[in-house]
Each structure stands twice: as structure tokens, then as C-alpha cells.
Amino acid sequence: MEISVVIPLYNEENIIPELLQRTISALEPVTEDFEIICIDDGSTDSTLAGLLSFHNKDKRLRVLELSRNFGHQAAYTAGLAYTKGEYVVMLDGDLQDPPELVPEMYKKIREEGLDIVYGKRTGRKESLYRKIFIKVFHYIFKRLSRIDKPADTGNFSIMNRAATDALLSLREKNRYIPGLRCFIGFNQGYLEYERSKRKTGKAKMGFVKLTKLAFDAIFSFSRLPIRLSLIIGTMGILLSLTGTGIVIYKKIIGVAITGWTSEMLSMYFFGSVQLFFLGILGEYVFRIFIEAKNRPIYIVRKVHE
Question: If we measure between CA atoms, which residue out of 129, 130, 219, 235 comes closest to residue 174?
Fold first, then answer.
């Protein structure tokens, strides 16, 4: 098998025919030896029925039916585990990342001796709030993480078999695949493109899910939040010791101490700081808890070959 294309889908019944037709049309001039793996991530509409209908006509489409909705990154992980191709493409199912770019990515990865080629967005036709959120996230992630992940990159990419197997060897439960893809190293390049507007329906990654993914990315690849807790905590201790010394000194020389309001405000401030950093600690502890339980990232109900 030359190329495998992995496409996770959740409630995308209206887009399936165009998505698969465009993907097949893009792949056929490159090679006839390809497969498309669509993952139904617990859809509640007729997404699965649409996939199976297409599968009955074209066996190059394989369908993974997950037992429930496990999330976008888990669905990608499931699809990657079932690939057979020497080159593996990750493609979102909303057609914002054009399948027509796959031949160019395939050509680039082969001719330039690369292991991974990812899509780098030069622009995106999305709502203003999503643009701002994503821009802020990439800025923070780049400043906090210990990996050099290029901004404006997502899941859209092609990898050779060695890179795919390396990515699959990383089994943490809270996954941010673009970050993991950078973590494994290998020779990586990019192809620039403008991300299209969503064809139909609403984005499945709303504000809450985007925030969760951002938290997973930051807490998985950065120790700065926990180190910041230590630094500010140490500064608070030094400040408290200084204040204690001043109070004792004034007591000794008989100077009255006033400022009840400022003292109370200080107490509220430091109490809030403590709660804030307890929350940060809680995020790390929760992720340790999830990893310790070692539950599977996904569960496949059925594979339609």
C-alpha cells in the first residue's frame, strides 16, 4: 500500500460525498494503490450510514466505527493505528484543508527526502473570535513549550511509515497531535496554503473544546506553569518575611501599625494566588490520574473492511 488517508468524522453527513469524491480524485493521478480510512467518532446523525453506503461501492474506503465519541485527537489516533500505507495523510473532514494539496505534499516528501510534510496556513477564512483564539494559543504555546512547533499548523500533513510508527508509539491519553508530531523529530518540511471556509454545518470544535485542546497542549509540553507557581510562591515567602521583619521592628521601637484595609486586601490577593496555583497543580494531577488509570484512548466497535 502506497498511501493511506486518515479522516476523522463527527456528524458530517452532508459533506461525505464531496469529501470522498475530491479525495479520490486527488489520489488517483498519483497512485491507484491507496486507501482512505474514515473514522466515525460516535456520530449521532447519518454519517456512518453515508460512509457505509460509499464503502459498499468502493472498497478502497475503510470505515472504523468507534463505540462512542472519543474526540478528534483520539479518532485520529485510531485511524493511524489501522493504516497500511508507506505514506500516511492526516486530513480533517470539514474540507477546510483541501485534499487537492495531497499530491503536492506527496511529491515534496519523496523528492526532498523528508519524513514529514505538514500544511502551513498563510490565512484562514474563519470567524474573528476563532482567529484571535488560535493566534493567542499558538503564541502562548510557542513561548511556553519545549518544542519548536511552527505557528499556524494543524493536523493536515503527510508522514512516511517510520514517522507514523514513531507517532503511534506515544500513548499519552491527553493528546495534541501537532505537538507530538514535532516532538518525534525526523526531517520535517511544510507546504503553504490558505485554509478554506467550512463547506457546510458548524465547527465541531467550539470554544470549550478548543480551550480543552489548548490546555492539553500547554500542560503536556510545558513545565513553566508549575515552575511559575514555585517562583511566585518563593517571592511571596520573601515578601512575607520582609513584612514580618518590618512589623517586629516597628513593635520594638513603639510605632503604631495602621492599614487594616491594605492588610485585608493583601490577604485576599495572596489567597487568590494560592487558589490559582492550586488549580494549576490540579491540572497536572488530573493528567497524572488519567495516565495512571491507563484506559484506552479509543474503543473500536467495528471495522468495515
Answer: 219
Q: How long a stretch of residues is the chain?
A: 305
pTM (two decimals)? 0.69
> Are 96 and 232 within one domain?
no
Instruction: Centre a 10 Å sphere on the Cβ of residue 101 and count the other Cβ atoms it contains.
Output: 19
Could you read off the pLDDT of 280-299 as tens digits, one per residue? Answer: 777 777 777 777 777 888 89
Angle at the Cα of 210 (from 208 to 211), degrees rounded to 5?
A: 65
Pair (126, 271) in one structural domain: no
- 184 shares a domain with 67: yes
Q: In what order do the strands lie in the sheet with 3-9?
A: 188-195, 116-124, 153-160, 87-90, 3-9, 34-40, 61-66, 300-304
Q: Supply the range of the domain harboring residue 105.
A: 3-222+296-304
Closest CA to 7 of 86, 60, 68: 60
pLDDT per residue as tens digits for the range 136-163: 665 565 565 666 666 667 789 999 999 9
* 171 and 264, same domain (yes or no): no
Q: Are residues 34 and 126 in the same domain?
A: yes
Per residue in 35-53, pLDDT tens? 999 999 999 999 999 999 9
